[in-house]
User: Fold this.
Amino acid sequence: MGRTRVAVAMSGGVDSSTAAALLLEAGHDVVGVTLKLTDASGTAASIGGRCCSPRDIDDARATAAQLGFPHYVLDHTAAFRRAVIDDFVAEHKAGRTPNPCVRCNEKLKFGPLVRFARAIGAAQLATGHYARVARDGDGVRLSRAVDRDKDQSYFLFGLTPDVLRAVTFPLGERTKDQVRAIARRFGLGNADKPDSQQICFIPDGDHKAFVEARGGAGPGGEVVDEHGVSLGAHGGTHRFTVGQRRGVPATSDGQRRFVVRIDAATGRVVVGPRDALLNRTLRVSDLRWTATARPHAWPLRCAVQIRHHALATPAWVAAPDTTGSTVTLDEPAVGVAPGQAAVFYDGDRVVGGGWIEEGA
Amino acid sequence: MVYLDHNATSPLRPGVGEALARAHAELTGNPSSVHAAGRLARDAIERARARVADFVGALREEIVFTSGGTEGDNLAVRGLARGAAARGRRHVITSALEHPAVTGAVAALAEDGFTVTRLPVAADGTLPEGALEAALRDDTGLVTLALANHELGNVYPVTALAAAAHARGALFHTDAVQAAGKLALDLPALGVDAATVSAHKIGGPKAVGAVFVRRGLDLPPLLAGGHQEHERRPGTENVAGIVGFGEACQRATAAREEEAARVLALRRRLERALLAVPGARIFGAAEARLPGTTLIGFAGAPGQLVAIGLDLEGICVSTGAACTSGSLEPSPVLLALGLGSDGAAEGVRISLGWSTTESDVDALLAVLPGVVARVRAAGDDLPGWTAPGALATLEQA
Assistant:
C-alpha cells in the first residue's frame, strides 16, 4: 500500500502540531497548511497574537520543518475580514452576541482547506479539533470528543456532509493531557504552549474597543429594569451581552441584576434578576443538518447546547417553518443569547443546529 | 528538484560560490581601514565595482552598492524625488505594474506630500502610446518605470520613455532588476538617470545589489551614518557579497547571448505545449518579453494551488513576486491588466534561466496538465467555499 497523502491544517498550536505528528508516525504523506486570517503586520499583536498570527504561522512552519514535511500558508486575510470580522462588528452593533469561531468554521475555514486538500490529491483534511467524525453508511457522523472538557463539536455544527466526509480529527479519541504528552514525546517546541482563549483577531481581548474602532458601536440609551423603570444611561448597546452582570446596577436592596435583553433599535438594555434570564423556548434560524438526510419525525427529540461549555438540555425541536424552528427546553436555561449557536445532539452525536434569534 | 523560478532568484553561477568563499576567508579587513587588511578589502570592492560597471555599461563612480533591489529602489526613487522636490518638483509618475519595492517607495513619497500619478496599462501590460507624455507636468520631478516587469516579463521602451521625461525636465529611474543578465544592458545609452540591479537575480549572492546613478547627479543617502559609497550609502560594505556580485556580472555577460537564445527557444517550446492545456492563457506582451518569463493562467484553477501542486511533484514555480505571493488573493499586476479577481488569482509564473535544461521543461510538462485538472476539480462544489471575487458580489447583493 502506498502512503496516503493527508493535508493537516496547522494553527501553530500544540493540538494541530500533534495531529500532524501522529499522522506522520502512522505512515502518511503529510502536507501542512496554515490559513493566514489576520493581518496586523508591524504591530505588537502581529508578533504575539493568540492564534493565526505571524508568530503562530512561524510556529507551524517550524513544526513542519522539524518533523520534515512540506508546509504552505494560504492568505485568506481579505476573505476573513469580510466573512468574519465585518460580521462580528455588525452583530455587536445589532445588539447580538456573535460567535466568530463557529462562523469562521462554517463560512470560511473549511471550504478553502478541503479545496486545498483535494487540489493536492490528499485523501483527507486533518485538523486538531477535539471532535469525532466517522462514515456512517452514505452519511457521516459527527460526535463529541472523548475529552469532554475540550470537546469542540459545538463549533463544527455548521459543516456540511460534503465537508465532513473529507475531514478527520486525529485528536477526537484523546485527552488534552495525552496530547501534550505525545507532543513532548515528539519534542515539539509548542508542547506546553498555552491554549488560545481569546478571539484570534482581538488578541488583547478588548471586544468593546475593537468594535468601536470599526464603527460597530451600538446606540447609547437607557438601562431599564423589567418594569421599564430607567436605572440610568449607558454608552452603547455593544458594551453589553445577555447574561452580563458587570456594569449593571444592583437593586436598592442589593440583589444582583443581569442583562436580560438588548434592543439595539431603541438603545434599551433591559436588566433583571437571574430568574429573568431563564428561557424555555428559543427561536432558531438558518438550520442545518449534519446527516445527509434531514430528520423526518417532528418534533425532534434531542439535547440542545446553547453555548460552548454549556451543558446540553433535553428539548423538543418543532418542525421547521419558513424562517427556522422553535426549540422548547425541558428545563429553562440561563444565557440564551441571540447570535450564538444552538446545537442539537442525540447523545454524543451532532444532529444539526442553528443560530439563536431570540429566547422567550 | 526542477527549478523554474529564476525571477524570484537565480542559483549561483559556477565559480561564484568559490569566489564568495575565498572572499569570506581572505578578505577579513574593513574596507575603510587604513591598514593592509583594509586595503585588500577595499581593492577587492573596487575591482568588483569595475565588473558591475562594465556589466551595465557605466562608469565605476556611477555604481553604488546596496543590500539589494528593494534598498536600491528606495534609495534611488526616494533620493532622486527628494532632490527634485528641492527644485520645486513634487510630482512623481510610476505605473500600476511596478514591483512592491518601487510601489512602496512611491507610497512613502505620497505620505511625505508628493503627488503621484500611476500610469494605466493596456490589457497586455504595455504602456499605451503617449500615456507618459500625457501624465508629465511642469512639476514632475521623477518618473520610475521598470525596464522589465517581474511577473509578466514585459520589456518597456525605456529609451523613449526616459527621453519623454527629460523633455519635460523630469528625472528617470528604471528598476532593471529583472532585465539585468537577460537583456544586454547599457544604462547610459538608455538615457536613464538611475537604475537598480540585484546580484541574486543574475546568479550572484543574495542581499547585495547596486544603484546606477548618472555621473553628476546628487543622490542623498537614506540612512544616516558613515562616509561609505561616497556618502551615498553608509555602513560597512558587504565585501564578500560585492565580490560575488562582480564575479556573477562577469560570468553573466560572457554567457548572455548564448543563454538568451537558448532560454528563448525553451520558453517557446514550453509555451506552445502549455497553451494546449484547455483554458490556458498567457498574460503579457506577445513580443517584447524577457526570454525566460511566462505568466500563464488556467481558467478555474487558482495559481497558488497549481504552484503548490507542482511543488509537491518537485517542481518550483511561483504565482508572482515572491514579495507578494503566499496568497490566493488576486495579483495586483493582473488586476491592473483589467482581470476580474478570479482571473487575477490564476497567474502561475514560470521563469527559466541560465541553469534551465530541456529536461526541466519536459518534467514540468509531464505533470502540469494533471495538476491543473486536479485543482480545477477540487473546489467549486464545496459549500462555504466562496472565491474572493464571488464574496464581494454576495455582499453587494
